Each structure stands twice: as C-alpha cells, then as structure tokens.
C-alpha cells in the first residue's frame, strides 16, 4: 500500500473540511438552535439514513441519549434505522421507500425535528421521511452532499440544509460526522453552558 495514497486521503479530507468551514457554519448553528429549542420544549429528534448514513443517525441518537463529552441527563432521540422488525415489516408489507415515513407518521409530533441524512440527497426513503415530517409539522435538518440532490426540492423554507461541498461519498460522510459532533457539542453548550 502506498503511503502517499493514504496521505492523500488525509489531505483531501482536510481540504473539504476547510472548504466547508465557511459555508456550513451558519446552517449548523441554525440546526443547533432548532434542535435545542425542540428539546427544551419537550420535543424529540428522529434521525434516519441508509448505510453509513444510518450509522450516523444511530451515532447521533446515542450521543444525545447517553452523552457526548459532558455528563447530563439523556435527551430524547430515536434512530429510525435500528428496529429490524419494524424495518422489515414495513419493507415487506408496503415498500422499502416507506420504512422511515411510516415511522415518522407513527412517532413524530408537531415541533419534533427530523435529522435526515443522505449523502446524495436522492435516497427515496429519506425523501419520503422528509415529506412525512412536513405533514406532521416537524422541522427537518438535512445533511447532504453532491449539490443536495432531490432533497433541495422537498425541503421547505423553515428547514435547514447542510450540504457538504463535495462529490465524494467518503468526504461527505467525514464532514457529516464532524457536523454531528458540532450538533451534539452545540446542544450541550446551550444546555450546560460553555466549558
């Protein structure tokens, strides 16, 4: 294995993160404010995605329910990708496209937030979840890349779009993980004060 190839991954990742620094800081700050307000009002955050984005949704929910870096009471978050019985029942009885939207309809309440993660912005089941969230009077925070894809068409003016300026899935996912850590840190800072 070429050491230069490995080093190039580090350089590419750093370059995308530095480019994203300017463009994503404001939408991430808005997402933190929105999520904190929802949590402070007794609402919760539902999160969804596919593949690596499903893992990111689970990571986010785990950080809120458990803790991020400081001790605090658990915060209500649900990763919609974790219940295999629900997922397989909906996919079998309806369609894979509805695995998240049916859960949003069942679990989402007005004032809740949907964290919708799709690197391409084109995942049909995530787009359906966004539409269901709007019908349930929820706010959507969308993490995308590759120009935002079809997510740009279904997001409303009150939603928050964090679109990573990259076409490479690996780089997009790396910035999504950093964004998730920023969200968790920001929520904790608003809840517990700056440390």
TrEMBL record:
<keyword id="KW-0862">Zinc</keyword>
<feature type="domain" description="SIS">
    <location>
        <begin position="35"/>
        <end position="195"/>
    </location>
</feature>
<dbReference type="Pfam" id="PF13580">
    <property type="entry name" value="SIS_2"/>
</dbReference>
<feature type="binding site">
    <location>
        <begin position="92"/>
        <end position="93"/>
    </location>
    <ligand>
        <name>substrate</name>
    </ligand>
</feature>
<feature type="binding site">
    <location>
        <position position="173"/>
    </location>
    <ligand>
        <name>substrate</name>
    </ligand>
</feature>
<feature type="binding site">
    <location>
        <position position="59"/>
    </location>
    <ligand>
        <name>Zn(2+)</name>
    </ligand>
</feature>
<feature type="binding site">
    <location>
        <position position="63"/>
    </location>
    <ligand>
        <name>Zn(2+)</name>
    </ligand>
</feature>
<dbReference type="InterPro" id="IPR046348">
    <property type="entry name" value="SIS_dom_sf"/>
</dbReference>
<keyword id="KW-0963">Cytoplasm</keyword>
<feature type="binding site">
    <location>
        <begin position="50"/>
        <end position="52"/>
    </location>
    <ligand>
        <name>substrate</name>
    </ligand>
</feature>
<feature type="binding site">
    <location>
        <position position="63"/>
    </location>
    <ligand>
        <name>substrate</name>
    </ligand>
</feature>
<dbReference type="InterPro" id="IPR001347">
    <property type="entry name" value="SIS_dom"/>
</dbReference>
<feature type="binding site">
    <location>
        <begin position="118"/>
        <end position="120"/>
    </location>
    <ligand>
        <name>substrate</name>
    </ligand>
</feature>
<dbReference type="InterPro" id="IPR050099">
    <property type="entry name" value="SIS_GmhA/DiaA_subfam"/>
</dbReference>
<keyword id="KW-0479">Metal-binding</keyword>
<comment type="similarity">
    <text>Belongs to the SIS family. GmhA subfamily.</text>
</comment>
<keyword id="KW-0413">Isomerase</keyword>
<dbReference type="GO" id="GO:0005975">
    <property type="term" value="P:carbohydrate metabolic process"/>
</dbReference>
<comment type="subunit">
    <text>Homotetramer.</text>
</comment>
<dbReference type="GO" id="GO:0008270">
    <property type="term" value="F:zinc ion binding"/>
</dbReference>
<protein>
    <recommendedName>
        <fullName>Phosphoheptose isomerase</fullName>
        <ecNumber>5.3.1.28</ecNumber>
    </recommendedName>
</protein>
<feature type="binding site">
    <location>
        <position position="173"/>
    </location>
    <ligand>
        <name>Zn(2+)</name>
    </ligand>
</feature>
<comment type="function">
    <text>Catalyzes the isomerization of sedoheptulose 7-phosphate in D-glycero-D-manno-heptose 7-phosphate.</text>
</comment>
<comment type="pathway">
    <text>Carbohydrate biosynthesis; D-glycero-D-manno-heptose 7-phosphate biosynthesis; D-glycero-alpha-D-manno-heptose 7-phosphate and D-glycero-beta-D-manno-heptose 7-phosphate from sedoheptulose 7-phosphate: step 1/1.</text>
</comment>
<feature type="binding site">
    <location>
        <position position="123"/>
    </location>
    <ligand>
        <name>substrate</name>
    </ligand>
</feature>
<dbReference type="GO" id="GO:0097367">
    <property type="term" value="F:carbohydrate derivative binding"/>
</dbReference>
<dbReference type="InterPro" id="IPR035461">
    <property type="entry name" value="GmhA/DiaA"/>
</dbReference>
<feature type="binding site">
    <location>
        <position position="181"/>
    </location>
    <ligand>
        <name>Zn(2+)</name>
    </ligand>
</feature>
<dbReference type="InterPro" id="IPR004515">
    <property type="entry name" value="Phosphoheptose_Isoase"/>
</dbReference>
<dbReference type="GO" id="GO:0008968">
    <property type="term" value="F:D-sedoheptulose 7-phosphate isomerase activity"/>
</dbReference>
<dbReference type="GO" id="GO:0005737">
    <property type="term" value="C:cytoplasm"/>
</dbReference>
<dbReference type="GO" id="GO:2001061">
    <property type="term" value="P:D-glycero-D-manno-heptose 7-phosphate biosynthetic process"/>
</dbReference>
<keyword id="KW-0119">Carbohydrate metabolism</keyword>
């Amino acid at each position: 294995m070429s050491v230069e190839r490995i080093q190039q991954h580090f350089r590419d990742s750093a370059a995308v993160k530095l480019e994203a620094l300017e463009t994503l800081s404001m939408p991430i700050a808005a997402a933190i404010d929105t999520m904190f307000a929802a949590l402070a009002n007794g609402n919760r955050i539902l999160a969804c995605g596919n593949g690596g984005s499903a893992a990111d949704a689970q990571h986010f929910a785990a950080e809120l329910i458990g803790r991020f870096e400081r001790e605090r009471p658990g915060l209500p978050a649900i990763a919609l990708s974790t219940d295999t019985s629900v997922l397989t029942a909906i996919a079998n009885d309806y369609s894979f496209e509805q695995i998240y939207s049916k859960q949003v309809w069942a679990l989402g309440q007005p004032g809740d937030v949907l964290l919708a993660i799709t690197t391409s912005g084109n995942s049909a089941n995530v787009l359906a979840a966004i539409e269901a969230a709007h019908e349930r009077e929820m706010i959507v925070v969308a993490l995308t890349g590759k120009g935002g894809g079809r997510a740009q068409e279904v997001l409303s003016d009150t939603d928050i779009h964090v679109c990573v300026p990259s076409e490479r899935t690996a780089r997009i996912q790396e910035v999504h993980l950093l964004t998730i850590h920023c969200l968790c840190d920001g929520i904790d800072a608003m809840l517990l004060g700056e440390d």
